[in-house]
Amino acid sequence: MIYAVGDIHGRLDLLKKLYELIIKDSETHKEPHTIIFIGDYIDRGPESCQVIKFLLSKPFKGFKHIMLKGNHEQMMIDEMGAYNNSGYFNKNSMWWLQGGIYTLNSYKWGLKDPVITKHLKWMEKLKVIHKQQGIIFVHAGINPETPEEEWTENEMLWIRDKFLTYTEDFGYLVVHGHCITPDYDIWFDRLNITNRINLDTGAYKSNVLTAIAINKENKFKFIEACYK
Questions:
Q1: Angle, helix 48-56 to helix 12-26, in steps of 10 degrees
Q2: Which of 131, 123, 133, 125 is nearest to 151 (CA)?
Q3: CATH architecture label of 2-226
Q4: Who has the most CB within 10 Å: 43, 103, 163, 205?
């Protein structure tokens, strides 16, 4: 089975609940199992540091772990680099305004601490795309107007309308996050899925973290951890 997890954004509580649900589901299917995280582990929620520590422990025993980069990880890499060069943060930067301060709080502002250094090095090495069973797993999406060999990392971390509004066949089923459904991704309809599946359900504010389970025949179901 393949399990893919949407944007976590510092919600360790929901991630641990989802972990239990996925483990329980996996016990009803034959191995091997793969768990794929599609990025945005940090920002907005209260426990970004703790989420990364949990993921680095590779908690799904016996699973192959695939962890992809999201645009929030890239923003943190960029802003921490700028901080190390200048000694201060740009409080008008996109990262700061989109929840970076919550991430720094989770590290208790230990900006020279070995933990944050280790996590940044880990983020820098993350892949941006994974292919398995004819499915593409990517954080934001792909550019349908260019051939595959011309897709860029920046697009796969940031693309929105050009990808979200595309209704033709991509050549792959694309599993992604990045745009909260239905707040922004108003085109996504779980009951009428054609070329892509959106896993971003805005966990940091909706209290719902979504995953998908996909079998060898590419039949799938959603698994959700939530607080009501």
A1: 30
A2: 131
A3: 4-Layer Sandwich (3.60)
A4: 103
24 vs 102: CA distance, rounded Å: 32
Angular region, 109: left φ>0, alpha ψ -120 to 50, beta rest: left
Q: What's the pTM value of the predicted model, to 2 decimals?
A: 0.96
**Every domain of the chain and the residues it spans:** 2-226
CA distance 176 to 141: 6
Q: Return all residues near 11 (Cβ < 8 A) that are at least 6 apart.
A: 45, 46, 47, 51, 203, 204, 209
| Percentage with pLDDT > 90 across the chain | 92
Asked if residue 128 lies in contact with residue 177, where contact means CB atoms within 8 angstroms, the answer is no
133: left (phi over 0), alpha (psi -120 to 50) or beta: left
pLDDT digits (tens, 9 = 90+) for 145-182: 999 999 999 999 999 999 999 999 999 999 999 999 99
| Cβ proximity of 9 and 219 under 8 Å | no
Report the C-alpha gap between 211 and 18 in whole angstroms.
8
